[in-house]
């Protein structure tokens, strides 16, 4: 259960690469949109900002360092939030493409998917009445025949390349086996505690959004790593977002929200911004008497290298 007086980390995943523009008019697409929504989310209480990039013209996911450079330094200038850059990108990107910007930036944190998997939202295509851009329909329907690849060698490469610069990881675990994959790399000496384990529920291809699954993930992580050696965090996809992350906090964990994970604020109500979701979960947590972690708290809790050691200037050049 939760520990009295502990601080809860709120992460915000601002745009992602799964939802397409037609799913919400509020999904940030341009560098300016991503910048502004990330800054507002940080001001609302998100200590970690998880970032993907999108092509400014049509909102399709892009790994381009030039696009990332148009908003990441500005977020760092305007907030003290921990900048967390994806290494997942999208299922259509190569590993080299996914690592292009993190290699330049050498951020405090990067996400790291802990295994290859089916990853899809293709059933949503049949529910879309229209499409804003020509690429979207094929992109969503095509997920039915796509695999997100992160082999053991891929994961090792990410750990060595980025970890060698002091980058720490948000270990995204979509299934129970991903915890065992992480334990393997711990045994190999490639990563050290404290581990930030982001358990993902509700993605087709991964664990379902059943509360029982969260209990199994928590108890398994306890056995593999020891509770003092990791921080548990949860994201719930779609309509499961708020109930699951609230349960995670009550179980002693941390929370992730954001339009990458759900475009809704409540049943039938689309979130108008990432900050709205952050403000909502913050209110829920504070009403449950939890204290919200600041970016400075997070840097201490996760042993991060600090923003002063991130190569913002080099990545922009």
From TrEMBL:
<dbReference type="InterPro" id="IPR008567">
    <property type="entry name" value="BKACE"/>
</dbReference>
<keyword id="KW-0808">Transferase</keyword>
<dbReference type="GO" id="GO:0046872">
    <property type="term" value="F:metal ion binding"/>
</dbReference>
<keyword id="KW-0862">Zinc</keyword>
<dbReference type="GO" id="GO:0043720">
    <property type="term" value="F:3-keto-5-aminohexanoate cleavage activity"/>
</dbReference>
<keyword id="KW-0479">Metal-binding</keyword>
<dbReference type="Pfam" id="PF05853">
    <property type="entry name" value="BKACE"/>
</dbReference>
<protein>
    <submittedName>
        <fullName>Uncharacterized conserved protein, DUF849 family</fullName>
    </submittedName>
</protein>
<dbReference type="InterPro" id="IPR013785">
    <property type="entry name" value="Aldolase_TIM"/>
</dbReference>
């Amino acid at each position: 259960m939760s520990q009295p007086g502990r601080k809860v980390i709120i992460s915000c995943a601002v745009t992602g690469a799964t939802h397409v523009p037609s799913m919400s008019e509020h999904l940030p697409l341009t560098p300016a949109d991503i910048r502004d929504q990330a800054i507002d989310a940080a001001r609302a209480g998100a200590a970690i900002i998880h970032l993907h990039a999108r092509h400014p013209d049509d909102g399709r996911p892009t790994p381009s360092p030039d696009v990332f450079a148009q908003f990441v330094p500005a977020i760092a200038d305007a907030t003290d939030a921990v900048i967390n850059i994806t290494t997942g990108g999208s299922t259509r990107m190569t590993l080299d493409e996914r690592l292009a910007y993190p290699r330049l930036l050498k951020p405090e944190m990067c996400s790291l998917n802990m295994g290859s998997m089916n990853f899809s939202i293709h059933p949503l295509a049949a529910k879309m009445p229209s499409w804003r851009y020509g690429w979207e329909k094929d992109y969503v329907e095509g997920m039915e025949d796509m695999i997100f690849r992160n082999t053991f060698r891929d994961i090792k490469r990410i750990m060595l390349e980025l970890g060698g610069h002091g980058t720490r990881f948000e270990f995204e675990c979509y299934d129970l086996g991903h915890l065992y994959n992480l334990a393997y790399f711990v045994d190999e000496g490639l990563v050290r505690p404290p581990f930030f384990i982001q358990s993902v529920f509700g993605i087709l291809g991964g664990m379902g959004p059943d509360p029982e699954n969260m209990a199994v993930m928590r108890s398994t992580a306890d056995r593999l790593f020891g509770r003092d050696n990791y921080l548990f965090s949860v994201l719930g996809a779609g309509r499961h977002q708020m109930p699951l992350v609230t349960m995670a906090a009550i179980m002693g964990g941390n929370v992730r929200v954001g339009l990458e994970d759900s475009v809704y604020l409540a049943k039938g109500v689309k979130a108008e911004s990432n900050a709205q979701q952050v403000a909502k979960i913050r209110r829920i947590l504070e009403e449950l008497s939890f204290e919200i972690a600041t970016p400075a708290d997070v840097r201490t809790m996760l042993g991060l290298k600090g923003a002063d050691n991130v190569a913002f200037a080099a990545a922009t050049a």
